Amino acid sequence: MQHLPKPMVWAGMTLLLLSGFIHLISAPYAFADGLYKGGLLVIAGISALIAATGIQEGARGWGWGLGSIVAIARWPASWSIARSGCRGCRHNRTRGRTRWGSSR
């Protein structure tokens, strides 16, 4: 049984569920960029959903632990893709444009 305030538990579950669904919804589009990019999004999405289940069940160790790993691993992955790009991605072929398509 966890001894955390209910709002903290609900916030953790809600944010992980939201993150998991966003990852899983965007995964098919990421597979068009690269197999590894889509695969990583699917793994992150499923891990976030499992972590939310663990938090809901009161498993402080693996629920919150897996949720923390998902949250912490997201930042270096996003940063490395943004800095170096991914091989074959669409945004690498448009070097003179920003993310939204206009010139800098």
Can you put this structure into words, describing what you see?
The chain has three helices and no strands. The protein is mainly α. The chain has one domain (13-89). Helix 1 runs antiparallel to helix 2 (35-57) and helix 2 (35-57) packs antiparallel against helix 3. The longest helix has 28 residues, at 6-33.
End-to-end CA span: 53 Å
What would the principal axes of the Cα set say about the shape? elongated
Ranges with pLDDT <50 over ≥5 residues? none
How many discrete structural domains?
Answer: 1
Helix content: over 70%
Order of helices and strands: HHH
Radius of gyration from CA coordinates? 17 Å
β-sheet strand percentage: under 5%
Secondary structure: elements and pairs:
Layout: H1 6-33, H2 35-57, H3 60-84
Concise account of the structure shown:
The protein is mainly alpha-helical and 104 residues long. It contains 3 helices and no strands.
Provide key terms for this protein.
single chain; elongated; mainly alpha; 104 residues
